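Hmm, how's this folded?
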Amino acid sequence: MNKILGLSEGFHDAGATLIQNSKILSATHAERISRVKNDRWLHHSQIAEADTTAFYEKDWLKRTRQIYARQPYAKPRIKTDVSFYHHQSHAAAGFYTSKFDECNILVVDAIGEWDTISIWKAWVEKGPLGKKRPHMKKIKSFKYPYSIGLFYSAITKYIGLKPMEDEYITMGMAGYGDPTDSLLMENILKNVNCHKGLPDLPELRHISKENMAASAQSVIERELTKLVLNHCPSRNLVMMGGVALNCVANSKIAGLGKNIWIMPNPGDCGSSLGAAALAYGKKLKWIDPYLGTDIKNDIKIKEVVKHLIDHSYCGIANGRSEFGPRALGNRSLIADPRRDIKDTINQVKRRQRFRPFGPAILEEYADEYFKGPMNEYMQFVAKAKHDYKSVTHVDGTSRVQIVKPDCKSVIRPILEEWYEKTGCPMLLNTSLNIKGQPMVDTWEDALAFQKEYNVKVF
């Protein structure tokens, strides 16, 4: 059966996904190969042989918006057989990997060609001989320059962080502030083109970075909730686009009683999967996000746990790398959450001291230690019911990774051995990288990381 290669490049975080029949054979980030953070261009090794190649957006339509906005133009370097609309690829990456036969899809990002928000109705049509055909119909969209994603990126830039990269730091900083200026932030979102950042308004100058982050976070939570309440009547909801990485906002939406699916790579890199799925025309068999480079070392679980007990932390680079921005056990830096180790790990990773860490926990014990929405992909925050401060943010929440018994990652047997030795069912889990650098991908990367930063990697 034909192989289909989906591609995304030209803006940021380029990616490639190869599928055959309904199986995802591989899905990779360009940055992990080139070692250039958020690399916008595909690496030649990602261009696998395929019968059909599909691109994630309509370049000609994007160009019309760039001309309107007086932006520079970066033409894609690879010729493909077929292309789809930017938000259509986002939506398909979510729906075609979901278990839903009927749902709404909410796509929110910085910008596509012109769309910045789109809402879809999706369903599966059952045909003769049991064949199923997915359908998506866009029912509402919001156009540039109004953009929740551009607004949040502008806030990120204003408080001294890197836009299109550090928005998750803004989300973390929000926990230290008060949303005292939400009305001002709402007026900016609705009335200011934030594409080049925030204007130098006098009323902004007195606001602390923490309160600005908290106010902006409050606004996007409110706006996203309104979108769901007003336009997404289905109990099943797929969320995609870069804003779907805001796990605090996701938790507010989960509180509305929705069944939520967010493909673990909801941003532009993940849209390479959406483009491939659209070209295939049928739903895919989603198993897990371990779809990248494979490291086949014979890892010794008991040695890992002994090292953790003796030294508190170590790196894990084993199995196929994760497709998406979050390490889920195969390219992770793990640590003993019982110890006051947050500052140490932030120092190792060269991160700001206020930055929080999440836990990976055996599914059997998750409800004993946390209350609230949780899943395998760290996409929500839950209230902590324990005293382990290393994996608890200042607001009392944690971004939890549930590790199920059938999880293919090596993190499952490590957690089982760790629990047997310590009685603690969780470990601090963060990505195996230094701030501003891509995650470790190959074993050569892992050895270089171990040597450069004096962190034992298994």
